[in-house]
Amino acid sequence: MATIDILVGTTSGNTEYLADQLSEQLEQNGHTTRLHYEPDYTELTQELTQESLWLACIASHGAGDYGDSMLDFADDLHQQHADLEPLRYAVIAVGDSCYDTFCKAGRDFDQELEKRNAKRLVERLEIDMANDDPEEKASTWLNSFLQAL
Ligand SMILES: Cc1cc2nc3c(=O)[nH]c(=O)nc-3n(C[C@H](O)[C@H](O)[C@H](O)COP(=O)(O)O)c2cc1C
């Protein structure tokens, strides 16, 4: 079974906590996960194969910027325009609906990967920290992710 690389874009830790929970849940379902708290673009993209699989958990900050831990990765992703085929991926975007730029970083990431020929496994989950229970919502969404594998 393919290893799932979990990419974490966080500034204040909420998304890291969520990613840890998801990793545990995936491991309980028999999957192997690798958590990337500061994802390295070169490392993650240098040898993409049919098995490559990313679950990106990304908080929005600033005016829809990526969480701090993923700023370098985002710069590389948006500047290098690499072809990411045959990567498969899914996105959990974390944000707060009181911002006009709700979940913008996760949306940008999703759009960019699609442009780079990566294959979206399931529709992006958007978590609104103002209204949602993040763990419950993510846990329910994870079932559709698991089914798509
Ligand atoms: C300074 C600041 C800016 C934020 N900007 C946005 C934003 O542009 N869009 C959004 O959806 N959420 C925004 N948020 C909400 C965060 O995404 C939310 O608090 C999230 O839980 C932070 O996740 P983290 O702890 O993993 O960094 C912002 C929060 C802060 C404190």
Automatic annotation (TrEMBL):
Domain Flavodoxin-like per the UniProt entry, residue ranges: 4-146
One Gene Ontology cellular component annotation held by this UniProt entry: cytosol
One Pfam family it belongs to: Flavodoxin_1
Keywords: Electron transport, Flavoprotein, FMN, Transport
Cofactor: FMN
Entry-linked PROSITE patterns: FLAVODOXIN_LIKE (PS50902)
GO molecular function: flavin adenine dinucleotide binding; FMN binding; oxidoreductase activity
Record's protein name: Flavodoxin
